[in-house]
Amino acid sequence: MKFSAFGERFTRSTGTLQLMEDLGEALAGGRDVAMLGGGNPAHIPEVQAFLLDRMQRICERPAEFARLVGDYDPPRGEPRFIAALAQLLRAEYGWDIGPENIALTAGSQSAFFQLFNMLAGPCADGTFRRILLPVTPEYIGYADVGLADGVFTARRPAIESFPDGTFKYHVDFDHLDVGPDIGAICVSRPTNPTGNVLSDDEVNQLHALARARDIPLIIDNAYGKPFPNIIFSDVSMPWSEHVILSMSLSKLGLPGARTGIIVARPEIASALAAMNAVLSLSQGSFGPAVTLDLISSGEVLRLSNNVIRPYYERKVRATEGILRTALRGTEFRIHRAEGAIFLWVWFPGLPIPSEELYQRLKSRGVVVLSGHHFFPGLEGEWAHRHECLRISYAMPEAMVVRGVEAIGEEVRRAIREG
Ligand SMILES: Cc1ncc(COP(=O)(O)O)c(C=O)c1O
After folding, report:
1. Which of 18, 56, 193, 398 has its CA 20 to 30 A from that of 141?
2. Is the pTM of this model over 0.85?
């Protein structure tokens, strides 16, 4: 069968496809796989108990159940959920926003497909606009969503090293030109894959650049504030008509609900709602229904601050300790774990490419992600791209320990073989 250019573009082998297939295989059971590759959130007992209780209550009320499964929501998303969220963000941050600033999407991944292609690519005036990723490594999921080639342009980071064996990526403002071809700037904060959290100062500078050029600054807040709040330091949330804030229910514990949330100026939120109608008629009702009470009561803040964040913070510190022990004597650096659910490890001078390390680990039943996937839009060769691994620490501890010990053994083997 002959596919169109669109068909070929969206069926080719991509890092995202590899990641999701590895994840599906591992979670489908059968093989005893240590799945440290995916972005699946942990099943936190207190969160699970809340969701189960809420589901049971919906099932016990026939009218609520009938509405959940039997009615289409409007293309913008469930109005009560949107109103409750606008209220929560107003109360929490003092932002002057209302329901007109919010649109839901089928997961935030799908919001990025809509946003990037809305703001970049060939334009009616004959120009070609791009999405600027001012710092890489950056989220793998952006890499392949462009309808045209060359939608992304990215920059290398500045790297700061610390005496404790950690390092941190920064935006290299000295080499950050925002030319007339840039349609939007995008950062994930906290960053998937590195666990980096751009400082307030860096975000303010990016915000100022976006304002000066009258383009949006897209902040992918999938792990950020106010929920699920997997950020281990105190940072501010910028807001203006030039910010597009992407949020999600996934890392709160509901990836199965496929609920993404975009907070933006009304023109952008309405554009997304219009696209939703064309692409999928309406948004899934499940996520908003299960979390409406959580949002409208503000309980989501307690759950995020007192349960989810401490859960991941404990886990990341423990995993970092295990990793340091497993890698003792080898050349490695760990990115400062400031948020999200990953550790990013750099092996300077690694004798094999990280892709080969990934394959060797996978053949032993340990799935991580090779770092080379996380440089979408970055031009030019750079050894660093092939020297890093992303390790998810969200899975149960025994699995994490087994996986991390295998990483230590394979890195040693690679070094021995030289
Ligand atoms: C930084 C980041 N953005 C967006 C997404 C997409 O999440 P979802 O489509 O489940 O909302 C993910 C998922 O892992 C992510 O890590």
Report:
1. 398
2. yes
Q: What is the per-residue pLDDT across 326-348, written as a single tens digit (0 to 9) for each?
A: 999 999 999 999 999 999 999 99
| Predicted local distance difference test score (pLDDT) of residue 172 | 98
**Type and span of the H or E element at 367:** strand 366-367
pLDDT digits (tens, 9 = 90+) for 225-240: 999 999 999 999 999 9
Q: 178 and 209 in contact (C-beta within 8 Å)? A: yes
Per-residue pLDDT for 189 more than 80? yes
| d(C-alpha 134, C-alpha 112), whole Å | 16
Pocket residues for ligand 1 (CB within 6 Å)?
Answer: 39, 107-109, 139, 141, 188, 192, 220, 222, 248, 250, 255, 260
The CB density around residue 343, as the number of other CB atoms within 10 Å, is: 25
Looking at 80-213, which runs of residues are DSSP E strands? 102-105, 121-122, 128-133, 152-154, 158-161, 166-170, 182-188
Which atom of ligand 1 lies at the shortest distance from residue 250's CA?
10
Q: Which of 23, 108, 186 to mutate to test the pocket of ligand 1 (most atoms within 8 A of CB)?
A: 108
Return the minimum-mean-pLDDT range out of 20-34, 53-67, 133-147: 20-34
- Structural domains for the chain: 5-47+302-417 (3.90.1150.10), 71-299 (3.40.640.10)
CA angle 37, 137, 345 (to 5 degrees): 55
Ligand 1 center to 412 CA (angstroms): 33
Distances (CA, A) of 260 to 3, 50, 148, 233, 241: 30, 20, 24, 24, 20
Looking at every residue in the chain, the average pLDDT score rounds to 95
Q: Which residue has the tokens 């696209």?
A: 275
User: Which residues does 207 contact at the CB level (< 8 Å), separation at least 6?
Assistant: 217, 238, 240, 242, 243
CA 352 remoteness from chain centre: 28
